[in-house]
Amino acid sequence: MGCSWFACLSGEAREVDGEIAAIDNVKIFKYREIRQATDDFSAENKIGEGGFGSVYKGRLKDGKLAAIKVLSAESRQGVKEFLTEINVISKIQHENLVELYGCCVEGIHRILVYNFLENNSLDKTLLAGGYTRSGIQFDWSSRANICVGVAKGLAFLHEEVRPHIIHRDIKASNILLDRYLSPKISDFGLARLMPPNMTHVSTRVAGTIGYLAPEYAVRGQLTRKADIYSFGVLLMEIVSGRSNKNTRLPTEYQYLLERAWDLYERNELVDLVDSGLNGIFDAEEACRYLKIGLLCTQDSPKLRPSMSTVVKFLTGEKGIDYKKISRPGLISDFMDLKVRGPVATKAEQVNRQNYTNPSSSNASSRDHSNAYSSGASSANAGNTFSSTI
């Protein structure tokens, strides 16, 4: 027989308490401290909401501003992501990763406390209209710094941390910006550790359509190359100022990767650079960034460069052999396989239910919350792909 709701919740609480107790470098906040920091979770302090629960802006006892992520008691998948996030992010620190101040695990309350980042996420600012909507001026220098910062953060996760960490959900909504527009990678709820001497980890497919590496989406074999593919898509979004898919555009322009490859073959990549820059940018550097994006999204994972190499490409420390750029793994190929296939497997039926067009709605109708949400439970949950294959 199945357990009662209360008994299941109590068992889950004991599991979480046990795992938290085993982590010795996480500050544990009292629930009353969190209530005081958020003015008893006042509506004025709420900055985000999604399937996982809500995010509040708060001021801690030491005066620090914090983003306080409150897990909903009904979010069963969120409990696993809650533990994963604590286990992963509590052990590492880097200037391009969000900082976990601590957590609260009192009674049924599950709360994460992060540093507060003033300028929201890339999808709510740059990709939602930049200066005209967010008030932030993303000039070329700012975009280049964001690209390099994210690349350095990923290189740290992939190559310097032991065991290596694969993020699994690199996307614009998971890149937060501080007051100086320095990027911070957030949301480690889907992260996986890469054990030493293993070529890949076989796992359920999780991530966001448009950023998913085709080989991972098809076979469920996860490597660091999947993150590198996602970064390549993100890189193109930052340079072009548009989301990876936009159904409001003519068919031939809807998919960013397809458009980039078409322009690359015609030697017209500069046309993809955001017109919002008003021509004030280094055309050679912008095109180099777009070509790096193509290198990162090549159909064969073996051809994608490591993130430390990507950092060197972006900063100009290492030259690029452009002859090595091959056709990317295109999102339209993936969509044909997973959504439009003539025979729908159980997994594909799940995909149909979970899929929405990432950029098909007007920016003004999007959730303008801060992006501390967790993977498949985020405010953009319709965009997130999670299935067993």
UniProtKB/TrEMBL annotation:
* Gene Ontology MF annotations: kinase activity
In this protein, which residues make up the domain named Protein kinase? Answer: 41-314
PANTHER family according to UniProt: CYSTEINE-RICH RECEPTOR-LIKE PROTEIN KINASE 3
Q: Which gene encodes it?
A: LOC104740347
Keyword list (alphabetical) reads: ATP-binding, Kinase, Nucleotide-binding, Serine/threonine-protein kinase, Transferase
Low complexity bias: start-end ranges? 354-389
Q: Matching InterPro entries, A to Z?
A: CR_Ser/Thr_kinase, Kinase-like_dom_sf, Prot_kinase_dom, Protein_kinase_ATP_BS, Ser-Thr/Tyr_kinase_cat_dom, Ser/Thr_kinase_AS
Tell me which species this is from.
Camelina sativa (False flax)
Question: Transferase: is it a keyword of this entry?
Answer: yes
SUPFAM superfamilies attached to this UniProt entry: Protein kinase-like (PK-like) (SSF56112)
Give me the ranges of the annotated region Disordered. 350-389
Name of this protein: Serine/threonine-protein kinase isoform X1
Q: Which residues bind ATP?
A: K69
Q: Indicate the family of this protein.
A: Belongs to the protein kinase superfamily.
PROSITE patterns, from UniProt?
A: PROTEIN_KINASE_ATP, PROTEIN_KINASE_DOM, PROTEIN_KINASE_ST
